[in-house]
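QA checklist item 7 of 12: single-chain prediction sanity check.
[x] sequence parsed
[x] length recorded as 251
[x] structure emitted
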Amino acid sequence: MITEGERAGVITARWVHAMTTIVPPPSSVPYPPVEPEVVAVHFPDTQKLGLDELAAVSRTMSPGMVLAAYRRGIFPWPVNTRVIPWVCPRERAVYRLDEPDSFSRSLRKVVARGTFTVTFDRAFEQVIEACATYRDGGTWITPAVFRTYIELHQLGWAHSVEVWSEDGRLAGGLYGLAIGQAFAGESMFHRCPDASKVAFVHLVQHLRARGFTMLDAQVATDHLRSLGCTVIPRTTFLTQLEQAQRETARF
């Protein structure tokens, strides 16, 4: 979404003041992303799902399957380690990158204080592991999901936002998938208050700066609504997704 150092560098300027946080060095993420091995899998036409939200079921998953699904507006949502449902909700949560931000005053103050250091693609594996651990009510990030998205990161498709505390600990973050000018947020976590919210604010600003036109938040939750995400019909989402995938943007 520039040189490798700039892409993965620490965010500065008005977002974060200088501090002594120790963060990992920049990682090597290929661009353009590398297409994974083609898989013989067929996902249905999501424009014809009607009232259904379940598009497919599988016992395995791979980077090729994930990309094929996302290009149709479908994402995996495992409920256990034995079966993987692939879904396309009738209503899709999105954050409008073409509209003014609606972040709360209190969140803007947290960001402006610069308590945290924010980086991109510096600790993808740590972020996804934390997303699988620091969640109330369990997680859908099974070992298969963990392995597949790490491979997608190594291929240049999956990316992370890291939020570091002043003592150098990973305080929060999120990860997702970038295809064309669309970014699909997968999961977020926090170990310190507001850390995941700070990650989301920086993600929004980063996507705008890099030329992305869509931020797919998948399923609406109270937390996402509090950050300004709204819900649109599936048909509207699929039309916008198709448009966003016609052009490229570098995360």
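[x] summary fact logged: The longest strand covers residues 170-179.
[ ] second reviewer sign-off
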